[in-house]
Design goal:
Layout: H1 4-7, H2 10-29, H3 40-48, E1 52-56, H4 61-71, E2 75-80, H5 84-90, E3 98-100, H6 103-110, E4 116-119, H7 126-135, E5 139-143, H8 150-163, E6 167-170, H9 177-188, E7 194-200, H10 221-225, H11 251-268, E8 275-279, E9 293-298, E10 307-312, E11 337-342, E12 345-349, E13 354-357, H12 378-388, H13 396-415, E14 419-422, E15 427-428
Parallel strand pairs: 1-2, 1-4, 2-3, 4-5, 5-6, 7-10
Antiparallel strand pairs: 7-11, 8-9, 8-14, 9-10, 11-12, 12-13, 14-15
Length: 448
Amino acid sequence: MKSNQALHSSKLLAGRRKFLTTSAAALGALSLGAYVSESPARASRLASEKLRIAAIGVTGRAGANLGEVARLGEEIVALADVDDNLMAKVKDQHSGATCYRDFRDMLDKQAAKIDAVLVGTPDHTHAPAAAMALRLGKHVYCEKPLTHTVLEARTLNNLAKEKKLVTQMGNQIHAGDNYRRVVEIIQSGAIGKVSDVHVWAGAQYSGAKFTAAEAPAGLDWNLWLGPAADRPYSSDVHPFQWRRFWEYGNGALGDFGCHFMDLAHWALDLKAPTSVEAKGPPVDSVSCPDWCEATYEYPARGESPAVKLFWYDSGRRPELLKKLSHSKTKPADWSGGLLFIGSDGMLLANYGDYVLFPEEKFEGYKLPAETIPRSIGHHREWTTAIRDGGTTTCNFEYAGALTEAVLLGTVAYRAGKKLDWNAADMKFTNYAEAEPLLHKEYRKGWTL
């Protein structure tokens, strides 16, 4: 696979590198926007009254998040969606909310009335929406993956810390009891020192092609594009198939990496990989691949050894699953999950279950004491932390590092080369030519 499949012409590469350098310099300073502090009066009101929430995106996962927060009794004061047809499905459920097409107008005009913001747009507009809300001093809940590019993830992480705001990424499985028990088992040393973990997801997003068509009535296609390149409306993009396009999503790895790699990052205290390598079919400039396999290398952490994490998607699975047997399940049939390989055993897990190997060794195994409190609910964690000044389990510091790692896999695939990563400097030490893939150039009128 040749790297120029993904990096296009040398002229474009030079321009994007210049843009990335400029963006990184701005990120390092991060003096954008005034800090909006919590006054004692405002903090007191938040503790005793309903939170005033604005939502960007209103159906799909965005709608689910909106419904969860409304069920908690919070006040939905404003809604923004680029599609009038989707807005029509939910606005009557939130009759007190003011409706907008452009989230920038909503945040500008409603800033004084908003405490917090839900972001549930397609991936390519997560960062512009979340960054604007954070700079206005609003607490933010943003769907996974946190961002569309690595640089965007680092920016939101830094902004949330600078502004001292409560944030949560929407990988709801993190709140489940099963993930918490698996983390406790791994960290108790039940399977010994973990050196390898295999992670896979059955989802496949590929075959994307831009096909010019007439935009549906009620859809503001220009606003839907947001920071992406200006182009005519294309069929099979909105409202969901955008995940197949590099312009708007990052395929199966981008979609499910933040769910499944989350458990590995949590249990093994992983942060930034030191290298990433990925393979798949020849790179297409428009469409995400039919399949992708990636290998991440993470450094040792204290007494914990270095870890290799292997990713598989689109129905591919680790060969080792075929060799495992258990009386309660057939590992080779698991369509998505993780296999932790330790010096004293193995653990197979998915969203709702786990199994220890070898079976005879762990017969009658007694779980370690519960050290991770059961979640009060992924959305309630966020609203409660806003009220009491606490934190969340998937705040943007944790979620930003996780998202960066996930997206580095897509960068390595598109670059066609093993990449050595210096996370502190956000540089590839062996192949600077891939650095433009850490971010993208925004269309005029859109900012990070």
